[in-house]
Automatic annotation (TrEMBL):
MF GO annotations: 4 iron, 4 sulfur cluster binding; electron-transferring-flavoprotein dehydrogenase activity; metal ion binding
Keywords: Electron transport, FAD, Flavoprotein, Iron, Iron-sulfur, Metal-binding, Oxidoreductase, Transport, Ubiquinone
EC numbers for this chain: 1.5.5.1
SUPFAM superfamilies listed in its UniProt record: FAD/NAD(P)-binding domain
Domain of life (superkingdom): Eukaryota
Keyword flag Flavoprotein: yes
Full protein name: Electron transfer flavoprotein-ubiquinone oxidoreductase
Source species of the chain: Pseudogymnoascus destructans (strain ATCC MYA-4855 / 20631-21)
Function of the molecule: Accepts electrons from ETF and reduces ubiquinone.
Length: 245
């Protein structure tokens, strides 16, 4: 995820259609998974079992197993597959998906259809790790997707319940005393939603906008250039994702 200080160059690049400098990313999912499989297989076959025959030369069998272990496949020597993208966002929650959608909207409006935005999410599917309910203040989503509740929109989000009112209580061991809710905690015009369902819906809208969403890939480590600047992230398998400079 980019910091606030780096978003302005990103927005400028999206609007202008100019491609950023060297950027790499982890969209080689099949290749990465093949690498993981090969590594696991190599580990399973790396050590030969000892010969257990009575009176057999167990020392010789141990030496053979040790020699095979020395010749075993070293996963650290695998060439890491990589790809180049304009923006790589780690985390497919509401903030990451909304950022990806907005960047893609700006790029498309500027005629820059080749502007690539990638979202990496550690869960097996978008929303799987977002379990709580939430009260949604709708101003941001109305700016991002104006027709998100429009009855004429077949892709509208329909899992909402308008907030009916606010009740605040001060709890003691035996009593619940009503107290006035502060103005900043009033929920008039807000909606009660399942954040899990809302995030799944937002992920679908991101893919429709052209964002590349890759669930099942956690950002394992940050990759740095020799000068200390961040160049991207490495995923959990043999593959890496480098975002915009």
């Amino acid at each position: 995820m980019k910091t606030a200080t780096s978003m302005r160059p990103l927005l400028a690049a999206a609007r202008s259609g100019s491609a950023p400098r060297s950027v790499r990313a982890a969209s080689t999912i099949a290749g990465a998974r093949r690498g993981i499989t090969a590594t696991a297989g190599a580990r399973r076959t790396a050590v030969a079992p000892l010969r257990a025959a009575v009176g057999g030369p167990q020392t010789r069998a141990f030496s053979a197993g040790q020699r095979r272990q020395e010749e075993a496949f070293d996963p650290t020597m695998v060439e890491r597959e990589s790809d180049e993208v304009d923006v790589c966002i780690v985390g497919g929650g509401p903030a990451g998906l909304a950022s990806a959608i907005r960047l893609k909207q700006l790029a498309t409006a500027a005629g820059n259809d080749d502007f690539r935005v990638v979202v990496l999410e550690k869960a097996s599917e978008i929303g799987a790790h977002i379990l709580s309910g939430a009260v949604l203040e709708p101003r941001a989503i109305e700016e991002l997707i104006p027709n998100w509740l429009d009855e004429a929109n077949p892709d509208r989000f329909d899992g909402i319940t308008p907030a009916a009112g606010d009740i605040m209580r001060f709890l003691t061991k035996k009593m619940a005393l009503p107290i006035p809710a502060p103005p900043q905690m009033h929920n008039k015009g807000n909606y009660i939603v399942s954040l899990n369902q809302f995030t799944k819906w937002l992920g679908e809208r991101a893919e429709e906008a052209g964002v590349e969403v890759y669930p099942g890939f956690a950002g394992a480590e940050v990759l740095y250039r020799p000068d200390g600047s961040v160049k991207g992230v490495a995923t959990g398998g043999p593959g890496d994702c480098e975002g915009w400079e």
